């Protein structure tokens, strides 16, 4: 399903006025001189001017994952999300689509909606009660004796929004990148069997990580550090990202078990007509993607100590719990795990050059009952712990990147997706600068 709003007003194509021409030249050279196969130079992670550029060239230009229909299932339901300096209202419409509005009152700039989520009819700014329709039109802004003005000129500014396979994406650019529809056509058949429209939110975790958003994404794109995730390693094979040629000796037995489990998984997928093959275009298109269906260890059903299901209710029209996980990475700010019994979405919201909000949301079947069909603590335990461990890892990297003695180090073979993410990122920023 797709729902779009009218084209937004263009955002500025320049960096903030506080960035001088000399600084912009230095930043451009920084991107042009990036060393392939190595981590980024310190300013990429620490410089406020680079962060300002990221907000324009990446978050102000590309399609971003924001939320899912499970969070705003009914007309009038909304969530507010922030990407650096941008604040957006994402509002479910009567026809099942979404309106995406900048959360900035056209009177004096106050936040119109201040809660993270809720339900509303008209949108009323709490400062001076300017009132907007769900489409953002100004419908009330007068008091006795005031000079009349044209309300049509003061609607809330709009952004693009669309729903694909139950996931909601937004774009702040006047004209969004053109290949997102093609990417959606890739991932929709993988996600359709899980039917997000028939799920509900079981739990949502918000963590502020004291690190640059790129370090958060880099950490997610590799499993070289997965020895640091003991809970996750119970069900996620720690050989992710490896190949026959690169498996270390101590993981040979695990690698063999993984290949056997993957073969069994693929046989079941063929039986049910569920796609499973790897599609990997992380840095070869504007809307970078990697998606596949991969085996889990143990019972092969879910992220639990023995790989057993964590909810008794199957999602959508699935007929088998033993379907591993459908894993999807989308540039620039999201990743997802779709199991037969529940879904986990991850969204990254930059705050500033050294802070990032990571939002994790667990979805279960809309008729699943807590305490009967699933235990909330058991459902969320593995990824709660994993997220806290990742928070510690990326914060160590942020501290290191700020050190005067830091210099970029080489990526290992298993970190090729980190390199792909940075290739994508630098390409997109250089295109913006050009």
Automatic annotation (TrEMBL):
Its cofactor is Fe cation. Residues 63-170 form the Rieske domain. Keywords: 2Fe-2S, Iron, Iron-sulfur, Metal-binding, Oxidoreductase. Pfam families: Rieske, Ring_hydroxyl_A. InterPro entries: Rieske_2Fe-2S, Rieske_2Fe-2S_sf, Ring_hydroxy_dOase_asu_C_dom, Rng_hydr_dOase-A. This is (Fe-S)-binding protein. It comes from Glutamicibacter ardleyensis. The lineage of its organism: Bacteria, Bacillati, Actinomycetota, Actinomycetes, Micrococcales.
